[in-house]
């Protein structure tokens, strides 16, 4: 069976790359650098649905994306979360936050209006991310 991305993630995000375990997505909201890791494992809803080995790989990917966020964007804080109340498919948000962002210090969920990237800006951001993760 091939991996299927949840329809909501597919609608809200742009694919950046496939890592060892996860698909890396960019949330289409230019207000903050918002990346999402989705393990390519069918029916995974919780971290515990992954084997211990897969959990270690996922943690390595979270660390990689956190370092990329810090290197490229120098955020004041990185928010990392696996909530899944709206999208059941296991996915990890890695969001660069700034004291100057529109909703700081509140959470982005339910507070941050979507402001999609402009086409050229989107292509540039995806290329920048791919280069930073050496793809």
Automatic annotation (TrEMBL):
Transmembrane segments: none annotated. One of its GO terms (molecular function) is methyltransferase activity. Keywords: Methyltransferase, Transferase. GO terms for biological process: methylation. The keyword Transferase applies. It is an enzyme of class 2 (transferase). Residues 35-104 form the HIT domain. PROSITE patterns: HIT_2. InterPro entries: HIT-like (IPR011146), HIT-like_sf (IPR036265), HIT_Hint (IPR026026). Pfam families: HIT (PF01230). Its EC number is 2.1.1.-. Gene3D superfamilies: HIT-like (3.30.428.10). This is HIT family protein. It comes from Catenovulum sediminis.
């Amino acid at each position: 069976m091939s991996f299927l991305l949840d329809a909501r993630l597919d609608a809200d995000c742009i694919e950046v790359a496939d890592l060892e375990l996860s698909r890396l997505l960019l949330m289409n909201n230019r207000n903050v650098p918002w990346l999402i890791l989705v393990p390519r494992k069918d029916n995974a809803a919780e971290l515990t649905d992954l084997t211990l080995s897969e959990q270690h790989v996922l943690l390595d990917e979270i660390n990689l994306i956190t370092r990329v966020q810090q290197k490229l964007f120098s955020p004041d804080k990185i928010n990392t979360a696996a909530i899944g109340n709206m999208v059941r498919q296991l996915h990890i948000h890695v969001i660069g936050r700034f004291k100057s962002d529109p909703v700081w210090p509140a959470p982005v969920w339910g507070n941050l209006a979507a402001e999609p990237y402009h086409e050229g800006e989107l292509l540039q951001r995806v290329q920048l991310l791919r280069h930073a993760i050496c793809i």
